[in-house]
Write a structure and sequence with these properties.
The chain contains 19 helices and twelve strands. With about 525 residues, it is an alpha/beta fold.
């Protein structure tokens, strides 16, 4: 039976072995899995557990999630503190879902999940997992989904953004307008949701996950996260190392680059993908007619960009200048066939023939963008001076002509209030499994390798020549490693290299990407 691909948003987390005898009470943040708590730290942990007891002892009222979802998927709403430093203060809602195992006698625990973003809703992730996971894994877990704080049916962040506000990355030529746009978005968010913004962070979402763990009566959680979800999973392993069981991180970010660096890395990586594409396409000149050498193929593309700058190319009724063409095609270069087909259509459109683009993912909703911007800005830090962004994008436009100016451009975070706590430094020995395509447009291989280094107890499964964002359920070799780990808790003895099958590209090119990182 063919397995259904999962929605790729950010990436996956790791699984850690559970020390026996831990009670189902809230764990406190810890610097690493190996650090031994002092008596003062133990006292602090006890105080924190007491302060959170009103939340960890909630009894969820499970009911039907909605008329359009299967009855087996049950939903409930939890209360959590907006600010964990003041748990007696304002409360917010976290919407959760559960799909129970069909084999209670084989149950190992709960498998939480996050689809990525940031800003991706996760209530229906158990249904996605139910279709993707093999029976030997499904029977081991109750599948748990949740809308992270600020998202969906959890208390949402709503900035009142319009369609124009939703374009996150913008080129050099419009820098002055970009500064005004960034400030306008920050002002809108502050005006609409200023009291909430500082607390919609990855660290607080990890704390929410631990409250959920306690409410479910579990000593530990297992986890599957994609793209941004890998960052969330890694932060959880750092804050709650003894609560992390089996974590799978699919298409991983580099925690040290969060978040501006995750956009900036797209520029040098896109150049590498472009060079690979020119070689591939030159070898298929009879099919695409873009040139029989890499240099000729490159010239065909840049001729299209130059033509669009002189006279915008209309694609699906939308005029695109050269920057618009570069932005449109950047992700495609990681999936060489898609890029060749796209550039052929653009070349035809430049010659006056109408271009009807292939179906692309729907743009994210306003609430998704509001939540995504809030998480990225609240996690911090970001440069505050617009001139820093201008210098960087002028430099990177020269270094990386395909996407350098977009990747280093200014964001609303330049005008955000300062974070209320520092970002988490991930550096631990918690076991985890990272799965990664070699040619991933959103979380490149270099960022997954960085995650692997920071999670010192992890193993990595890399799909050689694998294309697209999101691995699980697209490659039998990678699936086998992930399935075995989820079913048994045993990591591969060493890192694994798998061969691409072609399914990686098909899955990645057809699925939605609700968050900026895809």
């Amino acid at each position: 039976m063919q397995r259904r691909p999962l929605v790729p948003l950010l990436a996956v987390s790791v699984m850690a072995a559970l020390a026996p005898g831990l009670a189902a009470t809230p764990a406190t943040a810890s610097p690493s899995a190996s650090s031994a708590p002092s008596s003062a730290a133990s006292s602090s942990a006890s105080t924190e557990a007491g302060a959170l007891r009103r939340y960890t002892q909630q009894k969820p009222v499970w009911g039907r999630c909605g008329g359009d979802t299967p009855a087996a998927l049950r939903c409930a709403t939890l209360k959590v503190p907006l600010d964990y430093r003041a748990p007696g203060g304002k409360k917010i809602d976290i919407a959760i879902s559960r799909l129970r195992t069909s084999a209670p006698g084989k149950r190992h625990g709960v498998l939480l999940s996050n689809p990525g973003g940031p800003g991706g809703p996760g209530l229906e992730m158990p249904l996605e997992l139910d279709e993707a996971l093999p029976q030997k894994v499904k029977e081991r877990y109750d599948l748990i989904g949740f809308d992270p704080r600020g998202v969906g049916r959890s208390t949402p962040v709503q900035c009142g953004l319009d369609a124009e506000d939703n374009t996150m990355l913008r080129p050099l030529r419009t820098f002055d307008k970009n500064v005004l746009w960034a400030k306008n978005v920050a002002d809108k968010c502050r005006s609409k949701a200023g009291d909430t913004l500082p607390y919609v962070t990855t660290r607080n979402t990890a704390r929410d996950m631990d409250v959920l763990r306690a409410v479910l009566g579990e000593r530990t959680i297992s986890y599957y996260g994609v793209s941004y979800g890998t960052a969330l999973g890694a932060v959880y392993t750092q804050m709650f190392p003894r609560r992390a069981d089996r974590f799978v991180l699919d298409s991983a970010v580099d925690p040290k680059r969060a978040w501006r660096g995750m956009f900036q890395v797209w520029a040098p990586e896109a150049e590498q993908a472009f060079q690979r594409w020119t070689k591939w396409t030159a070898a298929r000149d009879a099919t695409y007619g873009l040139g029989d050498t890499p240099a000729a193929v490159s010239k065909s593309f840049w001729d299209v960009v130059a033509r669009a700058d002189r006279d915008p190319i209309v694609v699906d009724g939308v005029p695109l200048d050269g920057a618009g063409v570069r932005d449109l095609v950047r992700r495609d270069f990681y999936t060489v066939r898609d890029a060749a087909e796209r550039v052929v259509k653009l070349k035809e459109a430049a010659g006056g023939r109408a271009a009807n683009d292939r179906d692309d993912p729907e743009p994210p909703a306003e609430d998704d963008i509001s939540a995504a911007v809030t998480v990225m800005c609240a996690d911090g830090p970001w440069p505050r001076d617009p001139e820093t962004y201008q210098r960087d994008l002028i430099r990177d436009a020269v270094r990386y002509p395909l996407y350098g100016d977009f990747a280093s451009g200014i964001m609303p975070c330049a005008f955000w209030d300062k974070p209320v706590e520092p970002a988490t430094e991930v550096n631990n020995k918690v076991p985890a499994l990272i799965v990664q395509n070699e040619w991933d447009s959103q979380t490149p291989l270099v960022t997954a390798r960085a995650m692997h280094r920071q999670l010192k107890g992890s193993r990595m499964v890399m799909v050689d020549e694998g294309e697209g964002h999101g691995v699980y359920s697209t490659n039998p070799c990678a699936d086998s490693a992930a399935d075995s780990y989820l079913a048994t808790g045993r990591l591969p003895a060493a890192d694994v290299t798998c061969r691409a099958t072609g399914g990686e590209r098909r899955a990645a090119s057809s699925l939605p990407a609700p968050g900026p990182l895809g």
